[in-house]
What does this fold into?
Amino acid sequence: MTDELGLPTDGETVLAAPVGDDLVLISGVADAMPGVVPVLLNGDPAMSMTARVLTWARNNAPPEASVGFVAVVPVKVAGRVRVRSVVMRRKGQPARYTLVRRALPLALFMNIVSADAGPEFPHVADGVAQSLLTGKSNPKRFAAALSMLTAAAHNDGFVEVMGVVDTGEIFLQGWSSELPADQSRFIISHDGLVVGEFKSARVQRDDLGERGYGFVGILNTSETLVDPQRLKCLFFRGSRGWHALDIYDRCVHLASTDVPAHIRDVLPRAAANSETLKTLRRAGERFDGRDTVATLTQPVRIGMDMVLELPRGGLLVSGWMLDPEHQVESVILHAGRESAPIDETWTRLSRPDVTTAFQQDGAFAQRLDPQRNDHGFLAYVPGLSSVSSDSVYFELSLRTETAAFYPLKPVKSSSRRALDRVMAILDPRSAVTTMAIETHIGPMIQSLDHQKPRAIEFRDFGYDENAARTGLIVGGGSEAEEILVALSFLALDPDTHDVPIIVSVPTELFGKVAVEVQRLASFYRLGIRLVAADGVQDPCDALEAAVHVTNLETFVFLSAGVLPRRQGWLSVMERAYRMRGAKVLVSPTVVFEDNSICFAGTVLDQHERRLVDRFLGYPCDVIRGAEPIEVMAGSTACCIMSRSAFQDIGGFSQSYLSAKEKGRDLCLKLKLAGTPSLWLPEVEMIAADAGPGESNLPWQRLTQHVDRWSFDRRWSLLVANMRGGE
It folds into this structure.
């Protein structure tokens, strides 16, 4: 049999140690045992599985007990099972064992195996650790494997310097006495266990004497992300079994940009094969914070106009690259450890100014084609982001198998006003602009972290909404005059004089208009609440901010630039609204100052299956005598709706740059939620601030293009399957 702490040597009994709930280690002796065997536990066919077996030769043992073994057995049953017997179906005679005692703690089990295996224990520990590391991740398996390695390994030195190369590999420097030169396989203790390949060179160290030698190397853990600050120990196999490199308690942690220079300093003293030295040399040539494009002997230069970083991730880069001889094979954008090639997706833009600037440069003068100016580029890269400690830069790979780097300084931006700079470099008449919008600008706007506008302050001037059924919300833009004119019109109309009025303006305009609003309220005896709204980019934002400072059940949206043509308009709109049970959005006709139609309902074109504005630009006479009709979308520049309908759909979307598509989007959301839009032709408003020529301004045209892309991306398929007003 066996003594209390020895390995069973009778060939009929075994020891067992569980690892978690789905693995058990079994150890005993036999006359022979293959590396993989079918196993049957407790004589139950449902508990049949395959086990990996690690063996060692037992010195001075009889033939029937000449081989010791540890079997790693996956327990394929639910819940805890007590193993009582094991049958190993090897060739020849199956070996049947019973457990000599209850399961042992893993540490005791390992001590018993180590005592019997002697010098072969590191091999056994290695095999068991590898088995524990394969398959599904399990903290208990990792702990067991770490325990096996710790028991088998001898301390062999320390890691004294480390840092992450920008490509994700880890630079290590230290000393050892047994670390093999060139390539080693490391098992890394790092919140569990990670396997990596280590390419290292030896460095002579006078301070070590006969104890060992210095090393420098690059650790590659493939797809596994390793934080050097959390490394605990490195295990490797040497000529005399397992060894461990501990982390020196005063280990120097290099910044990523400092690693290349450190490698360059130590390379002259490093000894290794050519492949290892090449790996180290390339790591020493990585990004170290400097612009190395400007120092290239090849005719390649690069410059940046802007680098915008979005709060929810993503970088938009715009600049130019001059490469008349096509020396650059790829351009990669790096942000910390993340990267993405941009030359496969960027949009090239015309930059004749770059051509002009380099025509007198000797390195480029004879190489530039005066007919080619597509040196500019624009690219949005979703998913990339940086933190304050991360470097953002371009890597240019050249045909000469060298790389050059260009550091970038991202500007964090959550405001759509930052897009002014982007729009300024685009020509709205160019087909390239369409590509840039669809590929880069549109997706960027969709991912912008648009915060909802909010009211941060308000003042009341005779305002009281307690007895009111309906209130007016006037949304102001950047012009104080149009707000004051709108209030004067409302004051002179008996229909709106006694209605509670909420005037919502951008924060920067609040102080400028407060005194005049108070004067008008006092002079005309109006009830006005003046709201300072933060995050306002257009009238829709101002309107939405005001909704949150009132308890009115019904409100009328009115953009400050839209004025009533005649008095009594509000009662007509409210009557139509009440006749539909307050389950509708009602909009009037909106005309330009030249009496042409600005809005007469948005309907579905049945032939092209898209939304169109009826009679846009036609004279008003074409709709004289028209009847109210249900349309696909009304105009939020002037409309009446219920508070609950507006809030139930989440208000205005923030994924648009202008009010037009934002209003359409709102109306379609309302329609899907059961609140249709109604066009009321008999009420006319004048769009005093929207002359026909303004939409032809380049920025306006680009904004409309971007918004159409955003709208179509969200609604085109759904609209094509809708039924709408004709």
User: Anything to note?
Assistant: The first strand starts at residue 13 and ends at 18.
